[in-house]
Automatic annotation (TrEMBL):
It comes from Sodalis ligni. Keywords: Amino-acid transport, ATP-binding, Nucleotide-binding, Transport. This is High-affinity branched-chain amino acid transport ATP-binding protein LivG. One of its GO terms (biological process) is L-isoleucine import across plasma membrane. It comes from the Bacteria. PROSITE patterns: ABC_TRANSPORTER_1, ABC_TRANSPORTER_2. One of its GO terms (cellular component) is plasma membrane. GO terms for molecular function: ATP binding; ATP hydrolysis activity; L-isoleucine transmembrane transporter activity; L-phenylalanine transmembrane transporter activity; L-valine transmembrane transporter activity. Pfam families: ABC_tran (PF00005). Residues 6-284 form the ABC transporter domain. Belongs to the ABC transporter superfamily.
């Protein structure tokens, strides 16, 4: 791939005796909408959890090429020490550093944000507060500046509000800005999660089943928002989705997982007629099968 923003090599994830990911290799092109599909239990969410640092992968490498540099995601989460580290002081130093200061916050700082399959908003906060909290990293957190309400502090607060309202407009929630997040409809909460992810200023956004539970009109609106992220902001979107109509319509590239392995990758029209993909979805070979 010419310009891969994300490269995953030999990714493995084991939960006790369960091998959720065997040996996953994939690349995501910068500025694309890439869908990760597969039957239930194929390992899609586990891939997302490894990419975003919610799980520390059992093995492999995840390289994120954002903000003009390359980040090894597994390394910044903090890895175990190895015997040979003592022979490489620089490597040992990096391990100590990331053991002490590493974590998922560094993945977000590197430019990767996500939404969740089960919506995880701050339900007791207002919509706009949810978006301001997401900008905690960019805002002025100086206690003295806050108490004195300095010019710099007010400027940072205004910038955060402007950004929040920009993304509320994109996801069509400006009218709900002061409502409690937990009181909104399911579709609105899904859109708010996307806005919250975007407020962290990512280059890659991972959306875990964003169309789950939406009606066809809401799904169409969602497709428009995802396209807008790519076309207007050059955001790379990595998407897990079971709504095949939506996946086939908006994806530039599709990667298919089954039982923790990548079984196919390519353009939508190629994947739609791929024998192994049809078999994986139907659980058996079926010439008639269509995704
Ligand atoms: N925290 C965990 N502990 C134990 N097993 C897990 C854990 N997370 C995932 N698994 C197992 O890993 C496998 C892959 O699960 P995963 O949720 O990644 O699949 P998926 O493709 O996202 O499925 P779905 O489409 O239903 O969400 C499953 O067998 C699941 O039971």
């Amino acid at each position: 791939m010419s310009d891969a923003i994300l490269k995953v090599e030999h990714l493995m994830m084991q939960f006790g005796g369960i091998k959720a990911l065997n040996d996953v290799n994939l690349e995501v092109e910068r500025g694309s909408i890439t869908a990760l599909i597969g039957p239930n239990g194929a390992g899609k969410t586990t891939v997302f959890n490894c990419l975003t640092g919610f799980y520390r992968a059992s093995g492999g490498r995840i390289e994120l090429n954002t903000r003009q540099r390359s980040v090894d995601i597994i390394q910044i989460l903090g890895q175990k020490f190895r015997g040979e580290d003592w022979l490489h002081p620089a490597r040992w130093g990096r391990r100590v550093f990331y053991k002490m200061f590493g974590g998922t916050h560094l993945v977000n700082r590197a430019g990767l944000a996500r939404t969740f399959q089960n919506i995880r908003l701050f339900r007791e906060m207002s919509v706009v507060e949810n978006l301001l909290v997401a900008q905690h990293r960019q805002s002025n957190r100086n206690l003295i500046a806050g108490i004195l309400n300095t010019k710099g502090y007010r400027r940072a607060e205004n910038r955060a509000l402007d950004r929040a309202f920009y993304w509320l407009e994109v996801v069509d929630l400006v009218d709900c800005a002061n409502r409690l997040a937990g009181e909104m409809s399911y579709g609105q909460q899904r859109r708010l999660e996307i806005a919250r992810a975007m407020c962290t200023d990512p280059e890659v956004v991972c959306l875990d089943e964003p169309a789950a539970g939406l009606n066809p009109v809401e799904t169409r609106t969602l497709s428009g928002i995802i396209r807008f992220l790519r076309d207007r902001h050059g955001i790379t979107v990595l998407l897990i989705e079971h709504d095949m109509g939506m996946v086939m319509e908006i994806s530039d590239h599709i990667i298919v997982l089954d039982h923790g392995d990548v079984i196919a990758r390519g353009a939508p029209h190629y994947i739609q007629h791929h024998d192994s993909v049809i078999a994986a979805y139907l659980g058996a070979d079926d010439e008639e099968g269509e995704i």
